[in-house]
Amino acid sequence: MASKSIPTQLIYLIAGVLIGLVAGYGVFSITAPQPRPGEVPTGEGRVFTIGFTLPLSGELSSIGKIWEKVVRLAIEDLNNEVKAFGLNITFNYEILDDETKEEKALQNVQTFAQKGIKVVIGPAASSQVKVVKAFADENKIVIISPSSTAPTLALKGDFIFRTVGSDAGQAKALATLAHQEGSRKVIVFHRNDEYGRAFADFFINYFKDLGGTAVSQPYQTGLADYAAEVSALAGRVQSEGFEAVVLVAFDTDGANILSHAAESAILSRVRWFISEGPHGASELLTQSVGEFAAKVKLYGTRPLFIANPLYIELKERFKEMFGLELAVFCENLYDAVKLAGWAIIRAGSYDGEAIAKALVEVAKTYYGPSGWTAFDETGDKAQQDYGVWAIVKTAEGKYEFRDVGVYERGSIVFIEVAYK
Question: What are the strands, taking DSSP E only, across 154-241?
């Protein structure tokens, strides 16, 4: 996205927001939180711990390991900001691996609750958020997911917040992309879980509104290998004459599916489109998948605030510090950390209800790498843009993820030619 110029209006907008932040946080220092469970009073100030339940193993492990580094960077930046405002407060973090499993995520949230921690960032998957919701609501634990996007979880009055828009928006962007690229009859090959089913349903409805035909084919999650599922997909594509496949997947399953599809003559003759789930996973950057992507002109969508200088800055810092590219939702995770810290400060007491209310207010005036973070009435990000990504071969003969287009005003605008 760096190739797009930054509008002058956006620069003024950022400046205005930052001025508002300084003014607002100056007030927070007067009403710093009182010691409660989950806070460690020390002779040199107060220390708060933010809990993280991340997928360091399992189906989202490739992305989860990158997220772990984002947490380190975000906490460091948060502490530097707090000290710059003269507050004698420090934020620590504790990360627990939820293995991309529903029950493990619930166990992690329960573990944090036993320690008195009132703010937990994660889990990643919508199916996990659905499972932890009842416990979080009952115990007034603020949950901030940077990546859960199922529209079915957009509910009012709970303790679930999401620093990303729901897939109702992304499904529309992906449907527009597939239709604009000339596909009229597509099959949606999707995870049979909360995320996959909801995404597929919304995509199919939007694609039909555009005049196309779309059907669903779910696949079971958690498998070691998806060769049989891909073979079944190929058979249906051939027998029913589909022009394109829309893949709604996570990283490890998505990479496995694409590697098998690359070996199929049938699946190599149709177009492919993909959701945000696998973006950033190194498994997609192999030669076989890269060559397949070029052959089928694989394009995906992902939540991305367009022409955001703060995102570009974060991307460059992250590459310099860790030698890695930002994966999907890294900017949303970074902003979740900042919002959580300042909400704890603004709340005035270490209490879940107070922090939840403060979180909404802080988000109204916070602009970060993921863009404007204000929540809607259901606790989801109110304004979400979408970018188009591809897997592109570099001059050195390797492959990389690259943002090549944007979804604007109901259509896709390409800013770079990914496949020739």
Answer: 160-162, 185-191, 213-219
- As a whole number of angstroms, the distance between CA 56 and CA 317 comes to 22
DSSP state of 10: H
Mean pLDDT of 68-92: 97
**pLDDT of 237-276, one tens digit each?**
999 999 999 999 999 999 999 999 999 999 999 999 999 9
pLDDT of residue 27: 32
φ, ψ at 144 (rounded to 5°): -120, 105
* Phi/psi-derived region of residue 280, left when phi > 0, alpha when psi is between -120 and 50, beta in every other case: left
The reported pTM is: 0.82
Contacts of 388 (CB under 8 A, 6+ apart): 177, 299, 300, 301, 403, 404, 405, 406, 407, 412, 414
Residue ranges of domains in the chain, CATH in brackets:
8-164+329-372 (3.40.50.2300), 167-305+386-414 (3.40.50.2300)
Give the model's confidence band at 43: pLDDT under 50 very low, under 70 low, under 90 confident, else very high.
very low
